[in-house]
Amino acid sequence: MSWTEVKSIATEDPIILVPIGAIEQHGPHLPIHEDSIVADWSANYIATQLKNEIDILVAPALNYGHSPTFRGYAGNLSLAQNTLRLVVGEILDGLVASGFRRIVLIDNNGGNVAPITSASLDARQGHGILVGHLYPWQLGYGLMRDAYDDASAVYGHGAEPEHSAMLAMFPEQVHSDSAVKRPFTQLAGWNPTSYTEAKIGNNSVPGTVFWDFSEISDTGVSGDPTVGTQAMGELWIERVMGFCCDYVREYNKNTQNGACDVRP
Ligand SMILES: [Zn+2]
């Protein structure tokens, strides 16, 4: 698209979806650019589904994110938290300067959420725009729980429902036979239960401690990465993308004609 086309399309006040990912490990069976390709896939899927009812465009993706937890594994290309906050803020600045005011970020990495929240709230104050946010992996945890006998046993990084979703979206990039389930390594006297959590006595809630994930996991995986199926991934697409389309419909309805804009 040329700059003159962008200028003319902006006058129609479309919704812009901005895919944001990360380059970080997801175990030996999944690719390091997984969060990025899924963010981009999701944005394009949503735009295609809604193209006959909503004026909607997908912006070029930001494929790097903030992943400090996984810096102990090869291929971790993580921006600092403040760098990502600035980059996202500057992308929002550029979209506003080009005439766009309705923006939904399709962000697919947990480490990105804090810097993106900060940049989006700054844009609310600085530009008066209402930025939307969708996090497909996180939505999947909430929307797929009843599809498993025991979701808490199989959910995890590089495990369910992410492994299944990847089998449905990018089967050629998944090497399921390399997936291994191994318990966390104990660190000193700590008994890790997830990335930054450990069991504390007989308490029902864990306590937080900030180690690098590589200190407690040699595979980079939590949960059970050996149970993924393409059929479960199809269900993930149906449920998660169904929610995302409903979200964008709601965003479209509520932001028409500058209804949510704050202008100085
Ligand atoms: Zn990830």
UniProtKB/TrEMBL annotation:
Keywords: Hydrolase, Metal-binding, Zinc. Its EC number is 3.5.2.10. GO terms for molecular function: creatininase activity; hydrolase activity, acting on carbon-nitrogen (but not peptide) bonds, in linear amides; metal ion binding. Its cofactor is Zn(2+). InterPro entries: Creatininase-like_sf, Creatininase/forma_Hydrolase. It comes from the Bacteria. GO terms for biological process: riboflavin biosynthetic process. Signal peptide: none annotated. Belongs to the creatininase superfamily. PANTHER family: 2-AMINO-5-FORMYLAMINO-6-RIBOSYLAMINOPYRIMIDIN-4(3H)-ONE 5'-MONOPHOSPHATE DEFORMYLASE (PTHR35005:SF1), 3-DEHYDRO-SCYLLO-INOSOSE HYDROLASE (PTHR35005). This is Creatinine amidohydrolase. The lineage of its organism: Bacteria, Bacillati, Actinomycetota, Actinomycetes, Micrococcales.
